Amino acid sequence: MSLALPLALCAAVHALALMMWFGALSLRRILELGQQSPGRSTLLLAGALAMVSGLLWPWLQTGVVMDDARAAIDPALVAQMLTQTSFGRTWLVRQVFVLAALVLSLVPLLSTGRAVYFLVACALASIGLLGHAAGVTGASGTVQRLTLALHLLAAGAWLGALPLLWAGAGRLAAYDLAVVLRRFSRYGVALVSIVVASGVLSAWYRLGGIDPLLRSNYGNILLVKVALVALMGLAALNNRNRLTPALQRPDLDAQAAARRGLRGSIAVETVLGLAVVFAAAALGGAEAPR
After folding, report:
1. 108-166 pLDDT per residue, tens
2. In terms of pTM, does the model score above 0.85?
């Protein structure tokens, strides 16, 4: 039995949980939403999911590396993976970040504080140290890891904010919702730009040209990911240019229609974002051309 698929799913869930956590905290801190900020239950759920999936990861990783599903339930082999490999040592440090952030989140006054935000950001950004870029040495490796970290943080801040915006679209007054969406839109433009630029740079490092993009499994998965991100961008543009302005019309029917449209559009954008994360996890398990 191959554990490659369960490993990819576990990595995707772990990344997704950290993105939701980081995105929720980012939305609160940058937009200063006040009473519309994420509740502790949202943050704790994301933290718990990150913790559990993180704990499962090295067991599955051991089974895949040993090419034996039985190795995934052998504590001695998993302990060797954690103490004798760069993956294991990196995982241990990252899991300490997640645990510390989760413990601090249990304290009401600290759950959205700077310490939690910093720890979650470190845990999310350091996912890049467990992938292809981790094995590249020298200046090139450093640039690749920093680029991937920036990509993860920007993607997390974008994707993690969407569920909260969807919830806000259902309960905020039309004017307040329009204000929040306009503020997020300015913030979102920068995030999308960073995601695209860092993604292009990472792809260039991994592929080195057009031919590998078209002729390798890695390149094909990357094309799917790019298409999904493009669709997310189109949904965001629709929200910004058509639906958000409609919220400020005096016609109550137009406002209600815009609200329904926004909830549907944000939901679609969120589903596409989930697909992007799983495509990224598949990339992590695919053999890069270089």
Report:
1. 777 678 899 999 999 999 998 876 666 666 777 788 888 999 999 999 999 999 988 89
2. yes
| Residue 110: domain span | 1-130
pLDDT for position 200: 86
Q: Which amino acid is at 157?
A: A
Regarding whether 265 and 142 lie in a shared domain, the answer is yes
1 with 19, same domain: the answer is yes
Asked if 46 and 181 sit in the same domain, the reply is no
Report the 3 state secondary structure along 192-217. Answer: HHHHHHHHHHHHHHHHCCHHHHHHCH
Give the chain's mean pLDDT: 86
Residue 30: C-alpha distances to residues 21, 47, 101, 273 (Å): 14, 20, 19, 21
**DSSP secondary structure letters along the chain:** ---HHHHHHHHHHHHHHHHHHHHHHHHHHHH--GGGSPPHHHHHHHHHHHHHHHHHHHHHHHHHHHT-GGGGG-HHHHHHHHHHSHHHHHHHHHHHHHHHHHHHHTSTTTTTSHHHHHHHHHHHHGGGGGSGGGG--HHHHHHHHHHHHHHHHHHHHHHHHHHHHHHHHHHS-HHHHHHHHHHHHHHHHHHHHHHHHHHHHHHHHHH-SHHHHHHSHHHHHHHHHHHHHHHHHHHHHHIIIIIHHHTTSS-HHHHHHHHHHHHHHHHHHHHHHHHHHHHHHHHHHSPP--
Per the model's pLDDT, the better-predicted residue between 200 and 99 turns out to be 99
